[in-house]
Automatic annotation (TrEMBL):
InterPro entries: 2Fe-2S_ferredoxin-like_sf (IPR036010), 2Fe-2S_ferredoxin-type (IPR001041), 2Fe2S_fd_BS (IPR006058), 4Fe4S_Fe-S-bd (IPR017896), 4Fe4S_Fe_S_CS (IPR017900), Beta-grasp_dom_sf (IPR012675), Helical_ferredxn (IPR009051), SDH/FRD_Iron-Sulfur (IPR050573). Its cofactor is [4Fe-4S] cluster; [3Fe-4S] cluster; [2Fe-2S] cluster. The keyword Chaperone does not apply. Keywords: 2Fe-2S, 3Fe-4S, 4Fe-4S, Iron, Iron-sulfur, Metal-binding, Oxidoreductase, Tricarboxylic acid cycle. This is Fumarate reductase iron-sulfur subunit. Pathway: Carbohydrate metabolism; tricarboxylic acid cycle; fumarate from succinate (bacterial route): step 1/1. Its EC number is 1.3.5.1.
Length: 250
């Protein structure tokens, strides 16, 4: 098959100041097999339509800001090569399960609230004085949770999660994986504090273990696994608290 010189890019557009409903717009874009979808969007913005709005920053799968739906799947558009889609039409939409702010940009306020809710920092019951030195952590202790630290907040997991579509109040994969990351940290004593949120009606029990979040995650954070492990830990704490009155646990 000969290499195409152009391809069709179909983009969802929505300007809340002028539109009542989102609509699709198509563009003919030069095809370069080394381009990613983000390059095609940038070409449109530079050459055809400067009003096209989307987020990006690093162009190297680090900042997490360029997540969009491409042909129905949430991806980092700076990592999604055109050669994996063309000659088919490449359809780009904003991430599912978020409000559209404009075109391909979605609102992040709800996600930021979720991050704050799970207390994503080390909690100590008694802080030791600074002059007593740092809290030491061994490599094997770090290994327990290191993969959960790699999140870039790209939100692909929220877009892929069917439960987010059913219950918009669900805390969701990345926030719950981050809670688990701190619960597993050998320096932390805040698990009970976080369980008030992770064990609530919007917490881990809302997850039905479809695992779509882990499948789309570009960083191997394994949010689905983190959520199931918390179900086990929360249940264990519940039982042990009743078996051992006065039990001390982080
Ligand atoms: S868990 Fe993975 S998919 Fe979800 S926000 Fe973090 S990096 Fe992105
Ligand atoms: S532009 Fe930074 S992750 Fe894609």
């Amino acid at each position: 098959m000969s290499t195409p010189t152009t391809f069709t890019l179909e983009v969802l557009r929505f300007d809340p100041t002028t539109d009542t409903e989102p609509y699709y717009q198509t563009y003919q874009v030069p095809y370069d097999e080394d381009w990613v979808v983000l390059d095609a969007l940038t070409w449109v913005k530079d050459n055809l339509d400067s009003s096209l709005t989307f987020r990006w920053s690093c162009h190297m799968a680090v900042c997490g800001s360029c997540g969009m739906q491409v042909n129905g799947t949430p991806v980092l558009t700076c990592k999604a090569f055109l050669r994996d889609y063309v000659p088919a039409t490449v359809k780009v939409e904003p991430l599912r399960n978020f409000p559209i702010e404009r075109d391909l940009v979605v609102g992040l306020d709800g996600f930021i609230d979720r991050l704050e809710a799970i207390k994503p920092y080390i909690i100590r019951k008694d802080d030791k004085p600074i002059d007593e030195g740092a809290y030491v952590q061994l490599p094997k202790q770090l290994k327990r949770f290191k993969h959960h630290t790699l999140c870039i907040n790209c939100l692909l997991c929220y877009s892929a999660c069917p439960q987010m579509g059913l219950n918009p109040d669900f805390l969701g994969p990345a926030a719950l994986a981050l809670a688990h990351r701190y619960n597993l940290d050998s320096r932390d004593e805040g698990r009970r504090e976080r369980q008030k949120v992770t064990g609530s009606a919007e917490g881990v029990w809302e997850c039905t273990f479809v695992s779509a979040c882990s499948e789309v995650c570009p960083k191997g954070v394994e949010p689905a696994g983190a959520i199931q492990e918390q179900k086990v830990q929360n249940s264990l704490d519940w039982f042990l608290d009743r078996l051992v009155p006065g039990r001390k646990a982080p």
